[in-house]
Amino acid sequence: MSTPRILIIEDEKLIRWSLRQRFEEEGYRVDEAENGPEGLEKLESGVFDLVMLDYKLPGMTGLEVLRQIRAGDEDIVVLMMTAYSNVEDAVEAMRLGAFDYVSKPFNMDELMLTVAKALETTRLKREVRDFRAQMKKEFGFDRILGKCPQIVRLFGMIQDVAESGASTVFLRGESGTGKDLVAKAIHYNSDRANRPFMNITCTAISEALLESELFGHERGAFTDAKQQKKGLFELADHGTVFLDEVGDMPLNLQAKLLRFLEEKTFRRVGGVKDIAVDVRIIAATNRDLEKLIADGQFREDLYYRINIIPIELPPLRERGDDIRIIAEFFVDQFATEFRRGPRQISDAGVQKLKEYGWPGNVRELRNTIERAVLFCKNGTIEAADLTIGPTVAARPTLVPTDIPADGISIQDIEERLVRKALEQTENNQTRAAKLLRLSRDQLRYRMERYGML
Question: Most distant CA pair in the chain: distance in Å?
Fold first, then answer.
């Protein structure tokens, strides 16, 4: 933050002078006003980090001035001053949003400490405001790239959801299709944008820790619970909680999540008091929940509760010319980031991208373009600069060329390929994943899906 600027609204000239002298010694910039209207006029014409506001002003009281300040700028910090300190005045000033309340005559050293804390509060408020503005820009609807029919429908749906009061949204799609981007677009383009966006991946931590992260815990609830902790649902009040990979949530927690979704209340681990909050839940998964329900691994009642507004994200391989649009966006992004100058992709390069199956979807395409921009030696990215798996035409034919009259299961073919790859590599998961053009995590997900783990 630049040199802090303080406005003193005080009708006594001697007090204004003494405060100005001390503030300027501390390196602050100072403006003065001797009444409320003059102070409000200065606030309209300049940006201040702190207002020193007298309670007793001629014509217009300090509390009336405070109300108008708050109506115009919620971030600016106001420090009330008075020679007639009483509890009622202090309570009313704090209710209206004053940072603190100081009595005359001042102890200047104590006052300077209070001013320093107030200015730090202003700095933090403005950082949060700037961060939220940046998030809204970064996750605006225009960041969802593409023109294919699926994306046009997706765009319309998430715009409607963001503008609605819908409290539960369900995102489905393969890994790397951008479920986290859609979740943030919904949040930062809604009336919840100024409240927290909390993100947790349900597979990333143990069941016991996941429960504590979601619901919080009371002091002494378990061995390491040395103090009370608020969970994500409580911290995100009036905001959004994004539950990624909800299909992997343990059954015990699924029951507690269901209760929360139905009642909008929860208890901290070890607690006895119900806590009510208002949060939007965005759940996401790349798993087949219907199969998990049939296998007894996911609660059917929870499925129906989160499936109120289902949004399906299409895989990249089904998005046609969107591949070029997204690739060109990443080219521009990484060319700027790496200071490589303008870059473009040749038609042959685009064709190579379109012929690939993209098991890792947009995330894999992003990584591919990042490598190409980094190592390309001229302004055009050719097909040879794109390090990806073999094209569709070059892949060995491992599936029937004709589909039987009674149909065939894609899942069965995928399971056979996974088993064959593990067999050929003597159960070396890293090598098997490489054979299938998958990441190791993608392979392990399929192994778990087909009961191989």
Answer: 97
Output the CA angle 171-177-180, nearest 5 degrees: 55
Whether the Cβ atoms of residue 156 and residue 147 lie closer than 8 Å to each other = no
In a domain, 166, yes or no: yes
Residues 76, 69: contact at Cβ < 8 Å?
yes
Give the CA angle between residues 450, 283, 449 to the nearest 5°.
0
Model confidence pLDDT, tens digit, residues 161-185: 999 988 999 999 999 999 999 999 9
Residue in 428, 441, 348, 343 with CA at minimum distance from that of residue 391 = 348
DSSP element (H, E) containing 293: helix 289-294
Instruction: Give the structural domain span for 441.
Output: 403-449
- Nearest of 39, 31, 7, 44 to residue 119 by alpha carbon: 7
Q: Which residues are paired to 311 by β-bridges? A: 171
Q: Count Cβ atoms within 10 A of the Cβ of residue 239 and give its class: 0-12 exposed, 13-18 middle, 19 or more buried.
A: buried
pTM, 2 dp: 0.65
- pLDDT tens digits, 102-155: 888 888 888 999 999 988 888 888 887 777 777 766 667 777 889 999 999 999
Q: List the alpha helices (DSSP H) in 82-206.
A: 87-95, 108-138, 149-163, 179-188
- Regarding whether 86 and 11 lie in a shared domain, the answer is yes
